[in-house]
Amino acid sequence: MLLQFTNYTVPLAIIVSFLILGIFYIFIYRKGPQDIIGITILILSVIWIVSLLLEQSFESPILKILFNKIQYTGSILLPVAIFLLTAQYTSYKKLITVNNIIIVSIFPVITLLLVITNESHNLIWENAKLIVFSSFSMIIKEYNTLYIIFTIYSYVLMLAGTIIVILDIAKSYKESKKKIIWKNILLIPYISIPLAIILIKTLGFNPFPPLEEVPIVIAIGTLVIIAVLNRTKIREIMPMAFNTIFESMRDGLILLDRKNNVIKMNPTSQNIFDTPLDKVSGKPVEDLLIGSNRSSKKEPALGSREIKIGVASNQHYYDTNHSEIKNNRGKYMGKVIVLRDITKIKKAEENIKYLSFHDKLTRLHNRAFFDFELKRLNTARQLPLSLIIGDINGLKLINDAFGHSYGDKLIAKIAGILKECFRNEDILARWGGDEFSVILPQTSFDEAMDMIERVYAKCKKNSTNLLSLSISLGAATKETTSENIKDVIKEAEDRMYRHKLVENKSTRSSMITSLKKTLEERDYETEAHTRRMKKFAITFGKALKLPDSKLDDLSLLASLHDIGKVAIPDNIVLKPGKLSEEEWETMKKHSEIGCRIAMSTTELAPIAEGILHHHERWDGEGYPYGISKDKIPLISRIISIVDTHDAITSERPYKKALSEEFSLKEIKGCSGLQFDPNLVDIFIDQVICESINVK
User: Fold this and answer.
1) Among 86, 468, 611, 665, which residue has the least CB neighbours within 10 Å?
2) Where is pLDDT greater, at 180 or 267?
């Protein structure tokens, strides 16, 4: 839920705070019914102003409508309260009886209820639209006749109050009560000014359309009327208001005398400097900084700069500003210093600055910093200047097998090794997605090659069966100032790519072997199972008179058809019981993952489609695409039958081996449903028979 500040937020908040203080003050020192009515007027004004402020501040349309309706509590009931207050301060106070109060309140109360329930009848307004101002938005309505009638009723009620005051003045004049006349004259502007504002705005002149001046004028007028007519002094409220605001401010406040000595500090500033007021009262304000990292008195005076207080994780930044205090004659009396905590802003700036020259994943420098430093170091003093360009081997295969999060771990792991192998003065950067670059000032080509060998040795040492750490690196050295640094970079890149051509095949082969071993360890895929699968697949392929190239693909598919399971969580792959629906959906993704792994390597690309479709069914009820019959690749249909036969006739930790007869019966029963019926016949008549003859 977002809040937005407007140009009116702070002034309105200050006015509301002042009015709340006035309510408490009048309540404590109340002298009669007029004070209770005055408190009611102030509360209604505060409700009106606060709900207006909240309507402007919230972005949610629902909340805007809610706070817009709450405003009517003030705008509808205030005319009644003003009429009662004016009557109370005149000789017509006898009019204020319970019955009369009920009579004058019936129409406003009914109107308020109709406002609250307007959506169900539209008697008050029909159209409401959101009007956007410079920094906020408000709801503007087109009122119906009923609300216009109520507005006229409000005018009449306030006009009646004015007439009562005028009649009372005339009566007092006849009786020569000048003191009462003077007091009553104050009531005329109290009623007439809000009434005039309403009339002027009704006529279309509204210099501040987002602001409701009426509740502010009424509230301030009420305070003045009660203060004057009850013989209270408004200056009695001001010290209380000042102390309350001073003590409750979230910013640090320090009050100084004309010699810049501390007079007063609010609790926030005492917490900032970890110093109680009694220890610094009467002392120079700069003494507050003694013990911080900004204690020098030669620096600009506190109040005109940023300061930093604390160390390490407890360090805070403050923006300081000061305002001079002058008396009525313009004489300088002192000043107040405001300290605003800008720690979050400063840390955000530092983070942005850090990220502009660093890679978020590896925390190494980025390409921008590399280019900047290369310009700086490309001087005669740094010769020989060596450059190393590197590219991680097999990253795409890792991303396809385990996802990009695992690939990110590989990048971070390689980055960590590079950090360990190069010197502090070397500039190590992540150049791109899987590329790294290093600037080696005052380093010969042979020294650069020694560092490369150190990286290779470290990668080999930290490699595991599952994760082979491999990076191709190329180096080049600028020996003289006449050489172009761009040519040196190109030479390093060319050497890196030549090394990559040699390394890629062995790296991919190593990673595929690691994936196969991982699969065997976690999915009951033993070497014996792989041998049997290959044997039956080759025999099946020969029975179908497939060419040698297809027999090679079939043999490879027999070994790697379930390679995608390496990316499926252990708790699913190794679960002994039945998989849940959600777990089964995850398990079914292994064929797509296996296809991506195969597509990322030249050696496995020919069987990628076979891996993708080896769980499809003849009747189209398989996965992942639900294709059927001859649309399923032939090698996928072959492996589906062979894998089912071996699964039934082999012993697993969770089941005993079943007979060959049982397996053939199951496969025959699924002919035309799960399996290609022609292939089933060939498998039973030729493949199995040949196997029995061999035995």
Assistant:
1) 665
2) 267
178 burial (CB, 10 Å; 0-12 / 13-18 / 19+) is: exposed
Q: Which amino acid, residue 160?
A: A
- How distant is the alpha carbon of residue 50 from its chain centre? 29
Which domain-ending residue is among 314, 348, 382? 348
Domain identity same for 540 and 639: yes
pLDDT tens, residue by residue, 122-172: 888 877 777 766 666 677 777 888 888 888 888 888 888 888 888 887 877
Burial level of 425, CB count in 10 A (0-12/13-18/19+)? exposed
What is the pLDDT at residue 220? 85
**C-alpha angle 112/115/116, rounded to 5°?**
90
CA distance linking residue 539 with residue 574, whole number of Å: 31
- Residue 235 pLDDT: 46
8 Å CB contact between 437 and 452: no
Q: Considering its fold, how many domains does the chain have in total?
A: 4
According to the model, what pLDDT value does residue 456 have? Answer: 93
Q: In whole angstroms, how far apart are CA 277 and each of 11, 253, 265, 269, 273?
A: 30, 12, 6, 9, 10
pLDDT band at 623 (very low <50, low <70, confident <90, very high): very high
- Least Cα distance to 458 among 483, 432, 422 occurs for 422
Residue 684 is encoded by which pair of tokens?
Answer: 């039973």
Task: Collect contacts of 411-418 with beta carbons under 8 A, ≥24 apart.
Answer: 411/361, 411/362, 412/361, 412/362, 413/462, 413/467, 413/469, 414/459, 414/469, 414/471, 415/361, 415/362, 415/363, 415/364, 417/455, 417/458, 417/459, 417/462, 417/469, 418/364, 418/390, 418/455
Contact by Cβ (8 Å): 441, 426: yes
| Encoded tokens for 506 | 């062995």
- 132 with 38, same domain? yes
Asked whether residue 434 is assigned to any structural domain, the reply reads yes
Phi, psi of 332 (to 5 degrees): -70, 125
pLDDT band, very low/low/confident/very high, at 420 (cuts 50, 70, 90): very high
Residue with tokens 């020294």: 447
Residue whose C-alpha is closest to residue 437's, from 401, 399, 471: 471
Kindly state whether residues 21 and 96 are assigned to the same domain.
yes
Domain contains 579: yes
The residues with which 642 forms a beta bridge, in sequence order, are: none
Host domain of residue 198: 9-239
pLDDT for 654 equals: 61
Q: Hey, how many other C-beta atoms are within 10 angstroms of the C-beta on 164?
A: 22
Summary mean pLDDT of the chain: 83
Within this chain, do residues 109 and 255 fall inside the same structural domain, yes or no? no
For residues 414 and 430, give the distance between their C-alpha atoms in angstroms, rounded to a whole number: 11
Structure token pair of residue 44: 């209604």
**Residue 505: inside a domain, yes or no?**
no
Last residue of a domain, one of 463, 489, 515: 489
The whole-model pTM stands at 0.48
Domain containing 294 — which CATH number? 3.30.450.20
Rounded CA separation 285/288 (Å)? 6
> Which is nearest to 393 in space by CA: 474, 471, 457?
471
Q: Which two tokens stand for residue 358?
A: 């660093």
The CATH code of the domain that includes 64 is 1.20.1070.10
Tell whether 166 and 84 lie within a shared domain. Answer: yes
What CATH number should be reported for the domain holding residue 659?
A: 1.10.3210.10
pLDDT at 482: 93
The 3-state secondary structure of 205-251, one letter per residue: CCCCCCCCHHHHHHHHHHHHHHHHHCCCCHHHHHHHHHHHHHHHCCC
Q: Is residue 652 part of a domain?
A: yes
Question: By three-state DSSP, how is residue 585 classified?
Answer: helix
SS3 315: coil
